[in-house]
Design goal:
This protein is mainly alpha-helical. 46% of the residues lie in helices and 4% in strands. Strands 1-2 form a two-stranded antiparallel ribbon. The longest helix has 18 residues.
Length: 110
């Protein structure tokens, strides 16, 4: 079971790292904390932080495209303003100039 302190700690580390690379977290911190909790639970389950909004197989080679940040993050953020799970968002979404809508699944190897 993932502890609240650990969730917040990892949340802050991932957010800082993302910002240093020019990426943004969803401005809804409660939402992002829940997503980070899912990442940590998947890490406990599979040994890697697969996207909490996708079903992982538990086989690293099959899932490496959905390990956060997934291969689809950048094209999703560019086209839709957010990645599939909406952890990462564009500057316009972060600054609340653009709402997050539905993001279609790009993953083909389901």
């Amino acid at each position: 079971m993932v502890e609240k302190k650990e969730i917040k700690k990892i949340h802050d580390i991932i957010k800082k790292g993302a910002e240093e690379l020019g990426h943004y977290f969803n401005p809804n911190e409660l939402f992002t904390l829940l997503l980070v909790k899912g990442l940590l639970e998947n890490n406990e389950r599979y040994g890697y932080m697969s996207c909490p909004c996708r079903l992982a197989s538990g086989i690293y080679e099959k899932d490496k495209d959905i390990i956060c940040p997934c291969d689809y993050r950048d094209p999703d953020v560019e086209e839709y303003g957010a990645c599939y799970c909406a952890l990462y968002v564009s500057k316009d979404v972060r600054d609340k100039r653009l709402p997050v809508g539905s993001i279609p699944e790009r993953r083909k190897n389901l």
